[in-house]
Amino acid sequence: MSALARLLVPVLAVALSLGCDSAAAPPADGTAFGTRLSVWLPDSRSQIAHEYYSGLADSAHLVIADARSWAVTWAKLYARLRPQPALPAVDFRTERVVLVALGERNSGGYDIRIDSVVRFQRGRVTYVTATAPGHRCFTTQALTQPVDLIRLARDVGPMAFQQRAVVRDCS
Question: Which H or E run includes 16?
Fold first, then answer.
């Protein structure tokens, strides 16, 4: 690893942690958040990016709350791609970015998706599905780093994540 990379890794980690709301929250089933008020399902207007070959080698559940953290996260997400796509505009006065990353996998066939966000009286739960290929699936043998990013209204409040694992059968 180059000297520059050794310096940038801790700097990026600190920057991401400072600008992102904590994913540490009460139980993800929503019981600590009170009564369910609404369910939100992602649509094409809320989708920011969905990638299989990202620069995010570690798993993550993040709520990005400011422009600086957003720029750092986007740069890391597309660090391996030249030229990098332009940074999507996000108005952090009215929006937040929710990111889920599966982490690096040794082949293709893996995926991660935000299924829904449920609003409760005292917070939200983001429900996520992580998919793995079954034993009969033919996949690329390339390293993959699946990631999904959406935008939500700013009033996110406390956020918990509940991730379920699914194996896709390719019979």
Answer: helix 3-19
